[in-house]
Amino acid sequence: MKLTLNKKSFTPQRIFCIGQNYAEHIKEMKSDIPKTPTIFMKPVSSLVSPGEEIRFPKHGQVFHHEVEIVVLIGKDGRAKTAEDAKSFIAGITIGLDLTLRDLQKNLKDKGLPWEISKSFDQSAPIGKFVSYLPLFPFDDIQFTCMVNGQVHQRGNTKDMVFPIERLIIEISRIWKLLPGDLIFTGTPSGVGPLQVGESVKIASPQIGTFEWQIVKP
């Protein structure tokens, strides 16, 4: 899969994901607000383009949607300040961090890694990217998730526990950023189940609208 932005093509490198980055979602998950960003990763094979069918995963039963703002990194290096972090952003879109909640809960309760609940094939649908410009309303991006036309999630980047600049700084402290890296920045409250035959649509007035259909495995 190639990522395109203004006729420029990026090869996806790594998918960094942020957990627990909206207070209301943290509350609904019965967790505590973290002191530093919670970072996990997905493989590039989890990406799904707009309009593709998403197969309900065979290895779980409770299949949840989590809508998120997604950042595309456009250059390599490490960010040290908030202004420096912004210079690494090439584009922004919205996406879904699809999660098998039953597996995740079971694994977390046992203190085990939970990649199989988050990092499976087709677990990261993303929309098309728009360019990040200095005038882009970076700290006021609205976005929603709808299932069969009914709104389930509403979010705004101004409500993040850790703003996008902080996420870029924290990630680049550990990994040198590369062009084509993606950052899923966390989901607001309202996560819920998806079933076979349902459509899931994500939208942002500043970015666009993207939709997928859930089909049998």
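[next item in queue]
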Amino acid sequence: MLLWEVMDITQIINSPIFIAFFIGLFSSLHCVSMCGSIIGTLSLSLKPDIRQNKSKMFAFIFSYNFGRIFSYVLAGFIIGFIESIVTLPLGDEHGHRLLQILSSLIITGAGFYIAGWFPQFAYIEKTGSRFWKAIEPYGRKLIPVASLNQAFLFGMVWGWIPCGLVYTALALAATSGDALTAAATMFTFGLGTLPAVMSSGIVSSFISRLSRLQNTKRTIGILLVLVAIFNV
């Protein structure tokens, strides 16, 4: 009975859904540096009575992030559907294994990037720049944000901003086996980023100082590399 329990725990730890959550957590410093300024700009565009009411402010920030995570889930569903078609000629086993290795290499690259050892990884963000240029004007039309629905819609646009770590999570989602699991993988990735991004307005100075510490970056980078090893 104990052996089966250990096997179940191992399967959970090695699952893309579980790994994606920790990638989200480990990439928090990057998320805050990229997304914290966006939240700050949007928050300042809100009406004074909303900014001065903490509960209302929290609702708007949550709506931004809920929209962002919704886009991650949609992207995960799309990548999972594409994966099932692309790997069809190779067979489920060989196709999945190939994607698993590729995913681990990308996660390793992200780890080295955060640690400061592989700045060239940032070039991966250029893959989505053309799509971002097409939808970014729609986001600008939603500013200033006047309602929670607008905040959600802006968050949906914001979710498609080119980000190497989001693409890393998508590479992992592609190994999940089906579109629904890939969508769930991106959902847990989004949940992993949520604590840091949601609290960026409250503890932004502390997180900013933390993000500048080279030892912190290296520790997180090494943790990501370990995640990649477990994923193989």
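[queue empty]
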